[in-house]
Amino acid sequence: MTSLSPVVLLVEGDIVVRHTLGEYLRECGFTVFEAANGNEAQQALQALSDIEVVLADIETAGGGFALRQWILEQNLPVEVILAGSVDKAVQRAGDLCKKGPALAKPYDHFLVRDHIRRALARRDRGKG
Amino acid sequence: MSMSESNGEPQPHGARILVVEDEPLIRFGIAEALRDVGAYVVEAASADEAWDYLSSGEMVDVVFTDHRMPGSMTGRQLASRIARQYPAIKVILTSAYLDDREWTAPVLAKPYAVNQTAEALVRLARRCAGPS
Questions:
Q1: Taking CA A32 as the corner, what is the angle to CA A124 and CA A68, rounded to the nearest 5 degrees?
Q2: A12 interface with B at CB cutoff 8 Å
Q3: What's the burial of A98, exposed, middle or buried (CB within 10 Å: 0-12/13-18/19+)?
Q4: Cβ separation of B44 and A37 shorter than 8 Å?
Q5: Are the beta carbons of A35 and B52 separated by less than 8 Å?
Q6: Domain B16-127 fold
Q7: What is the pLDDT along chain A (128 residues), one digit of tens a residue?
Q8: Is A2 inside any structural domain?
Q9: What was the ipTM of the complex prediction?
Q10: What is the spatial distance between Cα B59 and Cα B57, in angstroms, rounded to a whole number?
Q11: Would you say residue A1 lies in a domain?
Q12: Nearest CA in chain A to B33
């Protein structure tokens, strides 16, 4: 699993958020691996040496500060970006996208945020 | 997800496949192989996550799920639930522990050939999606 495009590891415990952000970043030209928690993220970082950026939700189990600390201890050459909320994660993904290799940016990150909100609301209604 | 210019709604295209696998490196491998052959791929780390995704109103053509996973549901239980609530979705199970149990969906033995499996899943998904 080697890639010519920059590789981002996305660490997020909610599948709706993770998938939507992952697709957005792919459209911005990144190769994206999606981890559902810190343990998966550690497995990915140990196995895949081409990961350059880790974008992690701080509330995901083992995925926030603990993961950053583990990365520091392992001395891995990756940039770690932490986000404390869905909105922050979307904003950070938007920032990454601006620097991404795709010349034509796919859509505004506010559309991503709105899509996530709608999907989460539908799911909550379904559970209610 | 891709967004249409007109309304900002996500417009999945091509074969839509939900991969459910708790081993991330196995999941990454089959997900990347599926993307390489043009599939729109959603990755779930458990059956519960997969159900969460479907409950959010997002649709797929095929679910490719491991059987033994942590959480409240096995892959087989997920397959049964999908058959009841989303009968149009085709489910393929995969497991390293094949036995003589009655499987509720077709089962692929692990380890599987990643590229051939990806191509077969995309063909299946396109058949399920029908002519576009």
A1: 85
A2: no
A3: exposed
A4: no
A5: no
A6: Rossmann fold (3.40.50)
A7: 666 789 999 999 999 999 999 999 999 999 999 999 999 999 999 999 999 999 999 998 988 899 999 999 999 999 999 999 999 999 999 999 998 888 777 788 888 999 899 998 998 887 76
A8: no
A9: 0.91
A10: 6
A11: no
A12: A1
